[in-house]
Amino acid sequence: MRRVSIGLLGLGQIGSEVYRVISRKRSLFQKRYDVRFDITKILVKNTKKKRFKSLDSKLLTSKPSDVLKDPSIDLVIELVGGVALAKKFVLEAFRNGKDVVTANKALLAEEGESIYKEAKKLGRQIFFEASVGGGIPVIKSLREGLAANHIHSILGIINGTSNYILTQMSQHGVDFDVALQEAQAKGYAELDPTFDIEGVDAAHKIAILARYSFEQKIPFKSVDCEGIKHISQHDIDFAKRFGYSIKLLAIAKKQKDGIEARVQPTLLPNNHILAKVDGSFNAILFEGDEVGEVLLYGKGAGPEPTASAVLSDVIDWAKGIRSNLPRTSKSQVKVKSISSILSRYYLRFSVIDKPGTLSYISGILGKHNVSISNVIQTEKKSGTTVPLILLTYKGHEADIRTAVKKIDSNRSVIREKTRVIRIES
Ligand SMILES: NC(=O)c1ccc[n+]([C@@H]2O[C@H](COP(=O)([O-])OP(=O)(O)OC[C@H]3O[C@@H](n4cnc5c(N)ncnc54)[C@H](OP(=O)(O)O)[C@@H]3O)[C@@H](O)[C@H]2O)c1
């Protein structure tokens, strides 16, 4: 039987669970794969911290070289998080002849190119199933089950915290702040939830998926990113009246003239398969040229699902899989600027209720080539502020933004900044 000695970098939420699974399932893995996995060194920041009972505390170290330079360690699992330090550790592991498994989405989205380049140069591998979709086997599906396809579209609900908040707001009428506190109490959201609610976490993940699927370099800065913190109960209720749900959607599409890569709150028709993905669950809808649509669904974060993905990489590595690095096609196309995208839009104007307002707004939209498909105007006493909701036909983002800016500048008609949400069908 083969023995694999593993060095673990980080023993936080995910590292601790990886340790526990390896201890608990060691004999199962031996039987199934004829490999014995042993964690032989663990890097932490604070070796004195109180940890879980089953831990062998003799394995702890605060010196990175104890893991990275130990010749007896075969494989390194990076679960420290962050970008700069994790990059340093990963590159050092490669230089010391070690392959790496990581769950670090920020690292790969922001520094993936230099890591893949170094891995290629040194003949090393990096496995990152746990970086996207938690326990859902997304990278493995792309690498294996969808290997014969050109993937041209990815739509994902890939931030469980945002999806939980939007679901609570929609199904229980809970305010954003209350839903966020609940998400934190249930362990879905980080103590600092900024990356979740501002869409950065989902942007990291879609950048990784687009890079892998389209075989194109995706500079992280080119991924347009908007989170859910401006979504109000009004928007959720009006969307419902039109037959839509609001979801934080990560979108990547490969078209002839470039790639679209963005994260945005989105109106999805209620009969769209992703509109039914609720709570903290994640789902990713791929479209491939041979297979058509494929939906992957499951738990997108948390220690157990993430450790499941980390271990699947460890087992793949032990089986000798050597093809996990993203390919780079010769013909690179650019990521399109957000102003060039074509979409339908939901517009919520906060207007002063007086005759002629609707025709004034529709006139300006019309001048910018934007046509209206649906309208809701709630009635109130003349002179008060009321919401006016318009859905548009497809228009260019640049035209919509210019028209809305012009409308918003007329303070005799508009009271608050207009809410613009894209519609996906
Ligand atoms: N949490 C999730 O649901 C989830 C899901 C998917 C992917 N991920 C990714 O998994 C990775 C780990 O996340 P986590 O939630 O487990 O993080 P975490 O709980 O914050 O744990 C981080 C670990 O790294 C150690 N560490 C931090 N800085 C260090 C330093 N300078 N030197 C040595 N050790 C250091 C910490 O040591 P101490 O224990 O001594 O403080 C801790 O053990 C991240 O990249 C995250 O994005 C997390």
Brief account:
With 425 residues, the chain is α/β, with parallel strands linked by helices.
Describe this structure in words.
The chain has 425 residues and is α/β, with parallel strands linked by helices. The chain has 3 domains: 2-127, NAD(P)-binding Rossmann-like Domain (Rossmann fold, 3-Layer(aba) Sandwich); 138-299, 2-Layer Sandwich (Dihydrodipicolinate Reductase, domain 2); 339-423, Alpha-Beta Plaits (2-Layer Sandwich), CATH 3.30.70. The chain has helices at residues 13-24, 26-33, 64-68, 84-95, 105-122, 138-145, 160-172, 176-185, 194-197, 200-214, 233-241, 303-318, 357-367, 397-408, and strands spanning 2-9, 35-43, 60-61, 75-78, 99-102, 126-127, 151-157, 224-225, 244-255, 258-269, 281-288, 292-299, 342-352, 372-377, 385-392, 395-396, 414-423. Strands 7, 8, 9, 10, 11, 12, 13, 14, 15, 16 and 17 form an 11-stranded mixed β-sheet that branches. It has a 6-stranded parallel β-sheet with strand order 3-2-1-4-5-6, sandwiched between helices. Strand 9 (244-255) and strand 10 form a beta hairpin. The radius of gyration is 24 Å and the shape is elongated. The structure holds NADP nicotinamide-adenine-dinucleotide phosphate (NAP). NADP nicotinamide-adenine-dinucleotide phosphate binds at residues 10-15, 43-46, 49, 79-81, 85, 103-105, 130, 134, 301-302, 306.
Helix content: 25-40%
Q: List the total number of helices.
A: 14
Structural class: alpha/beta
The CATH class label of the largest domain is: Alpha Beta
Shape: elongated
Ligands: NADP nicotinamide-adenine-dinucleotide phosphate
The total number of structural domains is: 3
On the 0 to 100 scale, the average pLDDT is 95
